[in-house]
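In the design runs reported in the main text, the only information available to the sequence generator was the tokenized backbone. The following block is the verbatim input for one such run; it is reproduced so that readers can re-run the procedure and compare outputs position by position.
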């Protein structure tokens, strides 16, 4: 089950990036489950990774190789398997992550590995070693859609985005793919995302752009409140276009950053639209908070409430659950001792005001609330009346199918 149309937009190739795929029979007996990205020698690579303390072995190795690449040279390959997360696997898992890299290069530090799937099971590295030649033989610049399908786990559909932006004389192309459907509450980026552009960008500016952009997009989605052991997001700049290296001081930087954010936003929202068992796409917008942290905490308190999420699944306008979630959020104690002036709080569902002046809005009707709750796309807008800060997150409802998918995940 997923929300909205199942349409993968056309994904433009990026000069300096080739992609190969193969079936290593880790996740499924047929279809791709091993993906390889080959990057040109001029590429700059940036990455952000999960903050889960039980991070997977490939995350440990990818971080290490990214740091070494920024100091000594360039990352040349990304290798991704699905079906096995290689997380919670101890020293053997770490050795397998290094072996993944060695299947592509004698200089393993030139390779960043990524895995997704079941946690706590041994990675069949021999299957990856056997399938790697097939992936390398299939290398092509237009394999983005194939890669988008090959990295899926419980996802019901591939996720990709592509755009172009004119920067001076250069038409810059940005293309990306992501995967994720459950265990989604990123604390950096998302389950897995790979984005590339053909612009020339300094290493420092690229990493800053990735960090700031993922914070506004992938770090603002949640399906179930669980942060994965394997979250990773990579941004590549091949340098194939542009005579001038972009950095934060360049006149076109804001335009470029906006285009990158557009791709990231589409990829992040695609994960929510394909949330496990999801039937509703919910935007939680919090305004008039005392601090940015306060706005975000209120938004996540609403988005993570099982009672709120199940009410949306049932299309039940039980607005008291939203009110209760707002009331139990953490408020900045330096502003009014953290106390909430209930008379200043307003809560809307789309264009229907449900709460004002400390309680049910005088003009609210159950029929109006029911009409909104029956829609697929719903915005919860909360105005706290405490300051000028705002933030928002994107989330889903919680359905029978979510429980079924996760109860039968290893069956």
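Verbatim output:
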């Amino acid at each position: 089950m997923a929300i909205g149309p199942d349409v993968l937009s056309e994904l433009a190739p990026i000069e300096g990036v080739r992609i190969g795929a193969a079936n290593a029979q880790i996740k499924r007996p047929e279809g791709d489950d091993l993906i390889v990205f080959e990057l040109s020698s001029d590429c700059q690579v940036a990455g952000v990774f999960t903050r889960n303390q039980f991070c997977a072995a490939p995350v440990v190795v990818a971080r290490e190789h990214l740091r070494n690449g920024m100091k000594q040279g360039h990352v040349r390959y990304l290798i991704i398997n699905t079906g096995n997360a290689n997380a919670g696997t101890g020293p053997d898992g770490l050795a397998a992550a290094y072996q993944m890299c060695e299947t592509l290069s004698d200089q393993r530090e030139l390779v960043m590995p990524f895995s997704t799937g079941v946690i706590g099971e041994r990675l069949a590295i021999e299957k990856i070693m056997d399938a790697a030649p097939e992936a390398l033989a299939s290398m092509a610049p237009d394999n983005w859609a194939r890669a988008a399908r090959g990295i899926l786990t419980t996802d019901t559909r591939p996720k990709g985005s592509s755009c172009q932006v004119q920067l001076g004389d250069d038409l810059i192309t940005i293309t990306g793919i992501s995967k994720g459907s459950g265990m989604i509450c990123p604390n950096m980026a998302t389950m897995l995302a790979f984005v590339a552009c053909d612009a020339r960008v300094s290493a420092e500016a690229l990493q800053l752009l990735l960090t700031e952009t993922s914070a506004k997009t992938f770090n603002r989605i949640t399906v179930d409140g669980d942060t994965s052991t394997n979250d990773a997001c990579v941004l590549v700049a091949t340098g194939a276009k542009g005579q001038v290296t972009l950095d934060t001081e360049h006149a076109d930087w804001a335009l470029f950053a906006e285009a990158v954010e557009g791709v990231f936003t589409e990829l992040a929202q695609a994960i929510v639209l394909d949330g496990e068992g999801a039937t509703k796409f919910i935007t939680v917008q919090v305004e008039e908070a005392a601090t940015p942290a306060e706005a975000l905490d209120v938004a996540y308190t609403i988005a993570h409430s099982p009672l709120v999420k199940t009410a949306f699944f049932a299309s039940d306008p039980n607005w008291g659950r939203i009110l209760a979630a707002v009331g139990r959020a953490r408020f900045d104690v330096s502003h009014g001792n953290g106390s909430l002036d209930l008379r200043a709080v307003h809560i809307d569902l789309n264009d229907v005001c449900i709460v004002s002046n400390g309680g049910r809005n005088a003009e609210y009707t159950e029929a109006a609330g029911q009409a909104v709750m029956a829609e697929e796309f719903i915005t919860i807008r909360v105005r706290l009346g405490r300051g000028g800060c705002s933030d928002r997150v994107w989330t889903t409802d919680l359905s029978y199918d979510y429980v079924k998918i996760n109860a039968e995940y290893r069956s």
